[in-house]
Design a protein that fits this description.
This protein has 85 residues and is mostly helical. It is 75% helix and 0% strand.
């Protein structure tokens, strides 16, 4: 886990913070390395399965929004024709 940043004293000129920079960077890089060890790459089957789910979902939403667009457009046309009379 990342370490909390210490709050500097009000009369501190920031020199102690500057001196602590390399140690903080080292701690950060250690934390990054530890988190990267936990990362697992998906298998080919997992990638294919999620890709299929995404493609199917995109087509479903495209069809839904196409139908909604058609219905709203048709309703607006009827409304404008009715108001133009």
């Amino acid at each position: 886990m990342a370490k909390a940043i210490a709050i500097a004293e009000p009369n501190d000129n920031g020199l102690s913070r500057l001196k602590a920079g390399p140690a903080r960077l080292n701690d950060f890089l250690k934390d990054v390395r530890a988190e990267m060890r936990k990362v697992v790459s998906p298998s080919r089957a997992e990638v294919q399965a999620t890709t299929i789910v995404v493609i199917v979902t995109v087509f479903i939403f495209a069809a839904y929004f196409g139908v909604v667009d058609f219905l709203v457009g048709h309703a607006m046309d009827l409304l404008f024709k009715h108001l133009a009379k």
